[in-house]
Every structure is written in C-alpha cells, then in structure tokens.
Amino acid sequence: MVMTVDKRGQRDKAKQTGALLRQYRERLGLTQHEAEKLTGVRREYIGSIETGRIAIIYPEPFNALRKVYGFPGWEILEAMGYETDAAGAAPQGQADVVRLATMISLLSPADRQVIEEMVHAMRKRSRGSGQNE
C-alpha cells in the first residue's frame, strides 16, 4: 500500500496557520522585526510561517510566539491540522467564554481596562448593591 500526502491540503493548512499568526502579530501592532526582538524567533522564520512556507512550527519558536502574541496554543495546533479537544472539552457556553477571553487578551491594555471596568459595573448592578468588590 502506498501512502500519499495531500500536498494541497498541507499547503492550505500552512497558509491558514500563517495568516492566523500574522493577524495576532498585527493586532499587537508589531512588525516582524519587532516580533523577532520580543520572541527571539528570527524574522525570516516568522515570515516563512506567515507566508505558509513552513507547515509545522517547532516547539521552541511556537512557545516563544505564543507567549508574546498571547494566542491559545490549541487554535494554532488545529490550524496546522492537529486534533485537539479544546472545543469539545468545554461545556456549552464555556467555549464562548474562552473565545471572548482570547479576543480580550488581544486588546491593548487601555481597552482591556475599559472592559474590566464595564464588567465590574455590571457585577455591581446585578448584585443590586453599591459595595465594592
């Protein structure tokens, strides 16, 4: 039996992974050069990932990018074609909370502060008290 590799599918996954990582970098307002300085991952490697020339990211650069970009690891693993139980493991509703937390983590510190203040105000109002938490 001869095993064949779906080159087109692998290429599509690599491009999807690269586009996703580029979005995370750009949401932080980073150039590839700035990302290199913050992560220690060579700019050329970052560029190769973002353009889909690299299909599988080695663990060290993966973890360095994750720490700086703040993406959930499972999201990139799934984009690369790995199966994770991240989506299936969360009870109904909790998956939405995870996605929302991920989106909030990509906001600027000032925007996160605004969100935190809004949540605090909603909690106070739902308790019906004027007490501080």
UniProtKB/TrEMBL annotation:
Domain HTH cro/C1-type: 21-53
Superkingdom in the source lineage: Bacteria
SMART domains: HTH_XRE
Name the record gives this protein: Helix-turn-helix domain-containing protein
